[in-house]
Design brief:
Blueprint: H1 2-32, E1 35-36, E2 47-48, H2 52-58, H3 68-98, H4 105-112, H5 120-131, H6 138-145, H7 153-156, H8 158-183, H9 187-195, H10 200-211, H11 213-228, H12 232-236, H13 249-258, H14 263-295
Antiparallel strand pairs: 1-2
C-alpha cells in the first residue's frame, strides 16, 4: 500500500498539467457563459446573467420564431453523422483492400494517410481554388470539356461539399484504425475459415467485421470528437454560407465571439457544444463496455 501511494506521486505532475490545460479553460468558459459581456459595448458593465445566455439559444417563443440554434444543431448532426457513416463504410472497404501483402502495399498505405496530415485550412483553400472553382478549377475544366455547365458546388450544395471534404480528410484515420484491427486478427482463425469453405462475403461480414467492431467503435468515438469540432475547412470554403446553411456549432461560436463580439453567448454556446460531445462520446464508450462485458 505504501508503494502504491508513492507511485501516485509520480502521476501527480502529469495530472496537474492535464487539468490545467483542459479543465481550467472549460471552467473559464462556463464562467463567461453566465456573464452579460459584449465587447462592442464597453460602456455597458459586465453583469451576472445566470442562464440568460443559454435561454437566448434554447428558448422558443413561438413556432414562427424558432432560434437559429436548432437549425444549426440539426446541420451539425447531419454533417457529423454522414461523415462518420461514410468514413466507416469506405474506411472499412479500404482497410480490407490494404490488408494484403502485395508489391507496393506499404507505399499505398502511406499515400492513403496523406489527407489526415494536411492542415484543415490549407486543404480547404486547395479544394476551393484549384478543384471546385468553376472557371479554372479541375472540376470546372473537366465539366466544360465533357460539355456540361459546371455548378458552383460550394454555393448550391454547401452541406454536401462540407461532408465530402470532411470524409476526405478523416477517412484515412478510420483506415488506420481498422487496418490495425484486421492485421491483429488471429491467423489460425483466418486459415480455419478458408479450410471450412467460408465464402468471401460471409468471411468479411460475419467473421472479420464482428471481431474488429471495437476498433470501429473507437474510430467512430474519436472521429466524433475530431469532426464535430472541425472549423478550418468550413471557414476557408463556404464560410458558413450561403447565409447559415453550412454553419456548425463550432462555427457558430466563432461568429458569436468574432462577429457579434458577445463573450457570454459564445461561452454558453461553446459549453453546450462540449456537453453534447461528451454525452455522445459517453454513449459510444458505454456501448464498447457492454460489448466487452458480453464476451466475458
Amino acid at each position: 500500500m505504501k508503494k502504491r501511494r508513492t507511485d501516485y506521486h509520480y502521476l501527480l505532475p502529469a495530472v496537474v498539467a492535464v487539468a490545467v490545460m483542459t479543465q481550467v479553460p472549460f471552467v473559464m468558459t462556463l464562467i463567461f457563459s453566465t456573464i452579460r459581456w459584449n465587447l462592442s459595448r464597453p460602456d455597458i458593465p459586465r453583469t451576472f446573467s445566470g442562464f440568460d445566455n443559454y435561454l437566448y439559444f434554447l428558448k422558443i417563443e413561438s413556432l414562427s420564431d424558432i432560434p437559429p440554434f436548432y437549425g444549426i444543431l440539426g446541420q451539425t448532426i447531419i454533417i457529423t453523422g454522414m461523415t462518420l457513416l461514410l468514413c466507416s463504410v469506405f474506411g472499412f472497404l479500404l482497410a480490407l483492400l490494404f490488408d494484403h501483402n502485395i508489391p507496393g502495399i506499404n507505399i499505398a498505405r502511406t499515400l492513403i494517410l496523406g489527407p489526415f496530415f494536411v492542415m484543415s485550412t490549407a486543404s480547404g483553400v486547395i479544394w476551393k481554388t484549384t478543384i471546385f472553382n468553376t472557371t479554372f478549377g479541375w472540376y470546372g475544366v473537366i465539366a466544360k470539356a465533357l460539355g456540361f455547365t459546371p455548378v458552383d458546388m460550394i454555393s448550391y450544395h454547401p452541406l454536401g461539399t462540407i461532408i465530402a471534404l470532411f470524409t476526405w480528410q478523416w477517412m484515412p484515420f478510420f483506415v488506420l484504425v481498422l487496418l490495425a484491427g484486421l492485421q491483429g486478427l488471429d491467423q489460425d482463425l483466418l486459415d480455419c475459415i478458408r479450410i471450412d469453405g467460408v465464402g468471401w462475403f460471409q468471411g468479411i461480414f460475419r467473421v472479420k467485421l464482428p471481431l474488429i467492431m471495437n476498433h470501429l467503435r473507437v474510430a467512430i468515438m474519436l472521429g466524433l470528437v475530431f469532426v464535430i469540432k472541425e472549423f478550418g475547412l468550413i471557414l476557408t470554403t463556404t464560410a458558413g454560407g450561403p447565409g447559415t446553411r453550412s454553419y456548425t456549432l463550432p462555427y457558430y461560436v466563432y461568429m458569436q465571439i468574432f462577429s457579434a463580439n458577445n463573450v457570454g453567448r459564445a461561452g454558453a454556446l461553446a459549453a453546450m457544444t462540449v456537453i453534447l460531445t461528451l454525452v455522445l462520446v459517453n454513449l459510444l464508450y458505454r456501448s464498447i463496455e457492454r460489448r466487452n462485458a458480453a464476451y466475458l
